[in-house]
Amino acid sequence: MIDIHxxxxxxxxxxxxxxxxxxxxxxxxxxxxxxxxxxxxxxKIDTRSWDVQRRLADMIxxxxxxxxLSPMPELLSHWLPPDDAEYLxxxxxxxxxxxxxxxxxNFVGMGMVCxxxxxxxxxxxxxxxxxxxxxxxxxxxxxxxxxxxESLFPVYEAAQSLDLGIFVxxxxxxxxxxVGSSPEFAATAVFPLETALASVSLLAxxxxxxxxxxxxxxxxxxxxxTWILPRMDFGWLLGAKGKMTRIPSELARQFWYDxxxxxxxxxxxxxxxxxxxxxxxxxxxPYTIRQKQPGAFAKRxxxxxxxxxxxxxxxxxxxxxxxxxxxxxxxxxxxAGPAHG
Length: 341
What we know:
Layout (H helix, E strand, L loop, with lengths): L1 E7 L15 E6 L2 E6 L2 E6 L6 H11 L3 E6 L10 H21 L4 E5 L6 H13 L4 E5 L1 E2 L2 E2 L6 H10 L2 E5 L6 H4 L6 H19 L2 H4 L5 E3 L6 H14 L9 H4 L4 E3 L5 H11 L4 E2 L13 H9 L7 H7 L25
Parallel strand pairs: 1-5, 5-6, 6-7, 7-10, 10-11, 11-12, 12-13
Antiparallel strand pairs: 2-3, 3-4, 8-9
């Protein structure tokens, strides 16, 4: 069972007054760790964000054999100056690579690049490929630049050429001012709307048609996208086509979607809308909002074994030799079961 949606934070990331004021850092105190941004606590974290042995123990409990490691979304830092962003991306990618090296048959990497400077991002994709990662994670916009902007097309072209996937995660969502003084609803209620906005941008710009081999994964089940596809289809038939030459619901089947919907009826609806072969298991580990035992949840809702690993291999671009984790084994000492697929 492969968990495609998990996040990591570097064990060490020092504050640096010479860098941009929004430079993130990791603060350690007795029994407490925090991600600091602009001198304020952004999020309390714990050692699960980087401790391989602790993650492996949790994976056994969740019935997970492999995790796909990606950065904490806020650390994507699409708003930093390019020099700072490039340095941070290298540090983040080194963290992920180091974790994979400790358990190479239980972890896969989705790294980060300096998306706010497209030429640098294209160059960094070569490094992502050299590290053996399956792709990169990006936000639902690049500091206000829509994902359908042609300025980002060189990144998509390079990722497609290098056979790298792109994992799209909500970041600094639009519409929080409409929620009012309740920022705690950002992740639960506004993230799905933000993902839908990014998805519509990609569709309207014709990205799935222009880059047909580019693998794009939409987090949290694609957010609200599948619920508005019938309306988009109707509009497309009336002439609201953007650059789409095919009906939106058909193009949406070129994306990939994770299972973090919490409700089996919603997940079943997603499967009917986009096809079960495009759905991969995700948990949002290690955060409070995480879906525990995500594989069991996905299989109950969809009734498909393919969602556990085979679909993930499709998004990741190849089959991996996965070391199956068993509850009777100590973390980090798993023996290889049969290679999935």
